Amino acid sequence: MNESPLPLPRLSAPAGRALAAAGITDLRQLDGMPEEDVLALHGIGPSQLGVLRDALTAAGLAFTDPVARPRATGRSDNTAHVAAPGSPREWIEGLPTARRVDDGLRLLELFDDVTDEPAVMWGPSIVGYGHHHYVYDSGREGDTLRVGFSPRASALTLYGLLGTPGAEALLARLGPHRTGTGCLYVSSLARVDQQVLRDLVALAWEHGRGDAR
After folding, report:
1. How many other CB atoms are found less than 10 A from the CB of residue 204?
2. pLDDT score of 211
3. For an engineered disulfide with 88, which of 51, 117, 119, 191 has Cβ 3.0 to 4.6 Å away?
4. How many Å apart are CA 162 and CA 30, to the nearest integer?
5. What residues contact residue 106 under an 8 Å CB cut-off, 6+ apart?
């Protein structure tokens, strides 16, 4: 029996065109390819190579002959996203609508319980847990939270819960939501399965890596 197609991850438009021009439409076609050969395709840069590398790893596949990757220096190029002073609970309680306060406090309780870690404000409007220093293949590096949330006016924004093995299956059972680059958006906690959400947070926390953008 033929294996079902293994789709490529979401890529930039130039990277997608470069792979299409090379006849690569299935992730398995990249398994065993030297990284230099993929990087040589016009439209594939270090950051998109990293996206492909992560997708291969998640699928149990891999490139060969890896190219040298930047080493961490400890600096942060993302000065707009840093841990900040202040009480997350007090910030949530000061939000302008009852819905945002209620959902924010419920999320605070859930994340506190799952992570067993003190909540910290990241910038003026994100409640975060844990710390992760990242280094992109482009050389850009910085600091971010591992998981977190923000009860924004438009939707509850949840950080660090996507991209871990097993997350897609949980998302299918979560209830109404949408996703963006590194973020999960929920209109109301009352509309999603609370246990599934808890499982998503636990999975991401165990996986140990969050991206907030």
Report:
1. 28
2. 41
3. 119
4. 23
5. 189
Q: What is the pTM of this model?
A: 0.64
Beta bridge mates, 87: none
Cβ-in-10-Å burial (0-12, 13-18, 19+) of 90 comes to exposed
Dig out the tokens for 69 from the structure. 């990757």
What residues does 158 pair with on adjacent strands? 149, 184
What gap in Å lies between CA 154 and CA 133, rounded to an integer?
29
DSSP run (H or E) holding 55: helix 46-58
CA distances from 13 to 17, 20, 42, 54 (A): 6, 11, 12, 18
CB 143 within 8 A of CB 75: no
Q: Which pLDDT tens digit goes with each residue over 106-140?
A: 999 999 999 999 999 998 999 999 987 666 666 66
